[in-house]
Amino acid sequence: MWFVDFHAAASTCSPSRASLLTGRLGLRNGVTHNFAVTSVGGLPLNETTLAEVLQQAGYATGMIGKWHLGHHSSYHPNFRGFDYFFGIPYSHDMGCMDTPGYNHPPCPACPRGDRPSRSPDGDCYTHVALPLYENLRIVEQPVNLSRLAQKYAEKATQFIQHARTSGRPFLLYVGLAHMHVPLPETQLSADPRGRGPYAAGLREMDSLMGQIKDTVDRTAKENTFIWFTGDNGPWAQKCELAGSVGPFAGSWQVRRGGSPAKQTTWEGGHRVPAVAYWPGRIPTNVTSTALLSVLDIFPTVLALAGARLPQGRHFDGLDASEVLFGRSKTGHRVLFHPNSGAAGEYGALQTVRLERHKAFFITGGAKACDGSVGPEQHHEPPLIFNLEDDGAEAVPLETGSAEYQSVLPRVREVLADVLHDVADDHISKADYTQDPSATPCCNPHHVACRCGTASPTHVPLSRNVRSETGKFTP
């Protein structure tokens, strides 16, 4: 089943992933913007993750790939419900590598010897190499990006086979490096059609997903559900390495400068691909127009697993089982798209999706390929678009029109309702404190913290945190 109206819960990495694992918007779970290499905190510890609930229900739980919800001390994935972790603590552009891959502008390789690298751009990380973890150990620093996808495929295969052999149900959360920059310089880069590194990266991602799906089909096809989606739209400032927003052009914003993609609340920032697969349960070759969100993964998966939602908190996602099984075509009536960096306060709800209409109380364009940034603009009354007629968000409804006047009071009502609900909820606050000592480093005596697989090290832990995790180590 292919979803054409599916949305990330925010249009940047950490908030989107926090919402996936909690079923709650950033205003509730506390994660409203990205964590840094030196972040002390992460997803608040009083938030319950999908993995924690399923772990308590007897599931083997694994996380492979990018985490980006806190790596220091008890924020590490092994202490957030995952028996097994193999991956990187944050985005793979947040550390140098010996094979830096394709970026715009290019970033230098990790320094060697005593001389630090000089970065041609402030966005390049040159002082600390990107680490690769297996559970609590850094097993490689810097990561070999060109081999990372195949390692992920191998570890995913081993995890699934181990869970199957043990007779336990499993949850495997795979946070791919694709399609984020830097794009790897792989053997697939020699595209016979000359389409360049982005197309090569897509093919590599397809191959990785295919290997995981083939493993599932061989071992547990009849009772394994696969849900594939993304965490935000294209990062436009990366130009041809960013991908495309397709028909969701955000034309109103483009005319005023900046990008309408990642970091914005335009459709190109949060409308993402989504595919669900479960042979014999989910109808095949079906396109669903139901309005759904990454927020729905948490309650849906728990419902399918027969597990209960955590008590004492409110959720923004819904159980989409009826849609998945073809018994309903209806998802959300309302979605809220939090500010994600382009304009306004992080996490604030100033963009409202109400059925086919979308209202903006604030707009702004993120940095575009040409370097332009769209100005922050507040709108009262709001801009309202009819997405059914204008998916490109080109021309807002006339404020005096009957359609606008009919929609506006309903938009105000649902926005007031959610803000009142958040105020009455048990909300969390993330610790965004930074300290250089929180930087993952396997060998502080080597430039860029360089080490190899022969000298893995444990991640620093506070005294009150367990120093061991589950027994599964492929």
Automatic annotation (TrEMBL):
Q: Where in the cell is it found?
A: Lysosome
Protein name (database record): Arylsulfatase G
**Which metal ions or organic cofactors does this protein require, according to UniProt?**
Ca(2+)
- The answer to whether keyword Ribonucleoprotein applies is no
Q: Known InterPro entries for this protein?
A: Alkaline_phosphatase_core_sf, Sulfatase, Sulfatase_CS, Sulfatase_N
Q: Which Gene3D superfamilies has this protein been placed in? A: 3.30.1120.10, Alkaline Phosphatase, subunit A (3.40.720.10)
- State the top-level EC class: hydrolase
Record-linked Pfam families: Sulfatase, Sulfatase_C
Q: Name one GO cellular component term.
A: lysosome
Name the catalysed reactions. an aryl sulfate + H2O = a phenol + sulfate + H(+); Hydrolysis of the 3-sulfate groups of the N-sulfo-D-glucosamine 3-O-sulfate units of heparin
Question: What GO MF terms are annotated?
Answer: arylsulfatase activity; metal ion binding; N-sulfoglucosamine-3-sulfatase activity
